[in-house]
Structure prediction request, 334 residues.
Amino acid sequence: MYEGLHAEEAVGPAAVSTGQLPPPGVVAAFVREAHERYGEVTDGTVADYIPALAKADPAWFGICVAGVSGETFAIGEAALPFSIQSISKPFVFALVCEALGGGRARAAIGVNATGLPFNSVMAIELNGERTVNPMVNAGAIATTSLAPGANAEERWRFIREGLSRFAGRELAMDEEVYASEAATNQRNQGIARLLHGYGRMYCDPDEATDIYTRQCAINVTAGDLAVMGATLADGGVNPVTKERVLEPERCRRVLAVMATAGLYEQSGDWLYEIGLPGKSGVAGGIVAIAPGKGGLGVFSPPLDAAGNSVRGLLVTRFLSERLGLNLFASAPAG
Prediction:
């Protein structure tokens, strides 16, 4: 690979290519239509490998769109809390990039897609970088191990407070989900120790796994996810609180990794159909980001075979098309 691609060269202010959401009435109407259109879909099954998640009602279904203007458009169970799970990964990566610099984070973690499942051990062995990217479990645990702090509690506070700034409100961990995951996360413990042996963990591996388990158990809502996504869409400024959470340069790097690896081995299909950076979580959440326009959060617990919310995928594709969000869509100039 051309080594210059790894340099974070300062080339002056960057030009951007973004649009805007349709008028508020149009956005609200399409959000309602999406909820009505897919509310009766019964495909998929609720995750049960984490026992606490198996209690979710398959009928729960919430949608929220948050624009960079700060307006939100929500329907259904958009205010119902659920654990963020893997959707925490890009936001923690963003916080670590902001704290340490994108170049150091990239060198320590990697940014290339694996083409393999999120918890693959084979991906670690097959790739020289070992951690590969921050969207899969290996890279995410390594990312968590890079969180600044002199001890576990300081690192945990850095992550929880950072995710809260993205959401625009104080977020808290679900104790039941944390206990359930901590009792069943032996594979993640093994991944962390394997990475430690390769020199790709940056604090004690058991400590990093525990903090990672805590971050996945933080409760959010579909509304929170929409605002968190809109913060990345708005160059790092939370459109509701107006607080700068992230520098614009970091936003585009995070969105690039989400686009290429956010849906794991289905990331190519996701980009082909939806054309947006996105991330899914096993509790049934999905976040998608339209740079310069806003964020979309969906919550619906039934998952497909790859672990993605069935209704969430349908809604995201529908709204991407209807609201003109697809990054690859264009029309003739003449």
User: Anything to note?
Assistant: Residues 152-167 form the longest helix (16 residues).
